[in-house]
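Field: COMPLEX_INPUT
Field: COMPONENT_COUNT = three
Field: RESIDUE_TOTAL = 667
Field: MODE = joint
Values follow.
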Amino acid sequence: MKTIYKRPEVFTDVNTSYCGGCGHGIVNKLIAELIDEMELREKGILVWPIGCSVYADKYYKMDAICALHGRAPALATGIKRSLPDKFVMVYQGDGDMVSEGMAEIMHAAVRAENFSVIFINNAIYGMTGGQMAPTTLLGQVTSTSPYGRAVASSGYPVNMAEIMANMPGVCYSERVTVNTPQRITATKKALKKAFELQFENKGLSFVEVLSPCPTGWGKKPIDAMKMVDEQLIPIYPLGAFKSPEEVPAK
Amino acid sequence: MGEKVFLQGNVALAESAIRAGCKYFFGYPITPSSEVPEYYARKAQEEGLVFVQGETEVACFNMIAGTAATGKRVMTATAGPGFSLGQEAMSYMAAAGLPAVVVEVMRPGPADGEILASQGDYFQAVKGGGHGDYNTLVLAPCSVQEMCELIQDCFELAEKYRNPVILLSDALLAKMRENVELPGRKEQNCDLSWALTGCAGRKHNVMTTCGDGAAQWEKYNLDLQEKFAKIKANEERWENYQTEDADIILVAYGSMARVAMGAMKLAREAGLKVGLVRPISLWPFPVKAFEGLGDKTFLVTELSAGQMVEDVKLTVPHKENVHFYGRLGGFVPSPKEIFEQIKKLGVK
Amino acid sequence: MNQVVINFDLCKECGYCVNFCPKKIIAIGSKINKRGYYPPVIEPMEACIACGTCAKVCPEAAIEVYKDI
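Field: COMPLEX_OUTPUT
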């Protein structure tokens, strides 16, 4: 028998705490595949956020730390500056990065820190029970925008991949999603690129992943995947906003 | 060694930290501590240091947490407003077992306040300005020389207990210049098997401070409490001056201890038997310093509205015999001013 | 015969494998797992082409696929 797909080696046996159909699960799996394929397990440190992926440090047989809310890029700066030859991954959700940690991610980009950042955008605060995020869409109903997000009180959704692309210290910025098998393949390709770039001394690599949040959006998983197409992609277009070929090494 | 140099407090502290092998510094400029990051920035190339000016104190306190997690000696320096911003990270570092060193140079608050001397951050440093049940060692020098020695001890103590340590200074100590014999270079010598370095050759290390149910989190806390109990049992530091025959005992630390020493001298010259208890560790509070002193009259003097005085009242037999005198706003009383207060106590 | 192995207790019944299987041979099963979910079953397994799509879309890495060569 030829193995077409086997559960990644780096995974522990821990059952994830994600809801059924959560995009985090798919991305966590792609990260695990890349750790196995690129032999990063013994050479790296994973930096996890506060959010739905708060327990992800338990899912990998790899050095890891769970940062304070929003602070993963600062914690990772301390780690990467200490161990520049090691692989450092930063993984954040929209509350963690775009709200609490907006200063930290922007300044990691300012300083052109050489680590790989994965941003999971599900337009909501999942872990805390479905409150509005800075990435919540206009008109989207959440527990803190029960009549739909309105500009007057809460402003506009935030396009992080585009913002990052404008920073000289960011060498790669792409937005992807995981709502079809083909797009999952493309997401893995983007993550791999981000992981490889870390060792080219070109600065920060950034991958934004639009993720279905069935529980937060009040939809069955398949319908949540459809919502990514119908509602998120029009506001958060897929694509590479900055390519590393444009950026020289520091 | 043996040679004395005339150095500013902040500069001597920074040089001593570098000599302790602290090659990593993340800081945000704030008066009266800015000479520390500036020194690290100047010496970075020559000494092979990593200096990053972080965007905020919030970020810097998390950066030192990251470097400490990799087992390297690391420091930040700040003042009151910045120290306030770092409190979540203090709670985090104590919980996660991260041995970073934090230099806090006190200035008068609350809020932005002034940039002169103060001791108004005692509560915050000693009782823990962050949330949850945690403690950190707090060491308070009273001279530039002592500051140089204590900052080196800070790194060792942080590693010994896997806990952040605070060096509590103030604007006067930071900015004054004194003759110092700089300490020598020290090597790091501790178990680092817990650090995040990439798990080649060992089981992977995971650091998380997120609880996983009450049972797990209570156990985690009880382990932390054991750590703090060990520090409390072993790390009290103090110095007593002429307390054996004293009727009145001054209690003061840091810059105020220097003033208190002057007041004590004036009092003795006037025939009053005055002594001084000088806490050097503020946490753990040196209760042993007060043992055997008997039921005396105490005068606690601080550059605040009265913070350490509460711990003195908790320590001595009769809290009604504990008096307080303090100044606010950045005024530092003269020894004569304290001597007047001693006389006012009317103790024969 | 190609093999698709479902890790019974990891499944959370999201339905992605059911939805994306190109041969439409995956369906929600009738046995409940310890988390209260009904993991899928592949029927008939002979029709499986070992494309690996089910494994690719599974958020739990609960599916393994082997090709009979």
